[in-house]
């Protein structure tokens, strides 16, 4: 009988003990009591800081690598404009159609390529306070404009016909305008550099 009473006494005390344990968990922790989680070691904290620093350096290295690649691409493009290397030319200059258009223009003499020098001469003559020279300058200006227009029309018609014969299945859109804009530049200043001589058939 004594054993049964002791067992019941333990069972009645057990819920109270559990309740006390739950109640105590909500009480504020004493300052001198141990923390609920261990403080990270110094080596762990240092490794975390090191990983953050490595991430920052990786971003800097990636940005530096991108700048270097961009400079290398620009240098390749500059060399291609001088040599005519199709692999690294800008998109507007790539392709057999654009190359033929350039060669077609570069193999001929065009009045438009001397437009800027002639315009400077005409401007100087028009500034001289002599009526006869001003009249000559005006006449020269009209003659130059008419000759450039006629030369551009003839060049455009011939180029369009040649492109249709050589590249019937290629996209020829904009090639004639591209070539006519090239005629306005002096031959030695054209980019990509001319790859054919005057009189040489493209």
Structure description:
- It holds the Pfam family DUF3043.
- The protein has helices at 2-25, 42-83, 96-106, 115-127, 131-166, 175-183.
- With 202 residues, the chain is mainly α.
- The N and C termini lie far apart (122 Å).
- The chain is elongated, with a radius of gyration of 43 Å.
- 9% of the residues are buried.
- Helix 3 (96-106) runs parallel beside helix 6, helix 4 (115-127) packs antiparallel against helix 5 (131-166) and helix 5 runs antiparallel to helix 6 (175-183).
- 67% of the residues lie in helices and 0% in strands.
- The protein is built from six helices and no strands.
Features:
mainly alpha, 202 residues, elongated, membrane, 0% strand
Proportion of beta-strand residues: under 5%
Quote the distance from N terminus to C terminus. 122 Å
* Radius of gyration, whole Å: 43 Å
| Unreliable sequence segments | 1-27, 30-35
The helix count comes to 6
Oligomer: single chain
Describe the protein's topology.
Elements: H1 2-25, H2 42-83, H3 96-106, H4 115-127, H5 131-166, H6 175-183
Helix pairs in contact: 3-6, 4-5, 5-6
Provide a concise account of the structure shown.
With 202 residues, this protein is an all-alpha fold. The chain contains six helices and no strands. The longest helix has 42 residues, at 42-83.
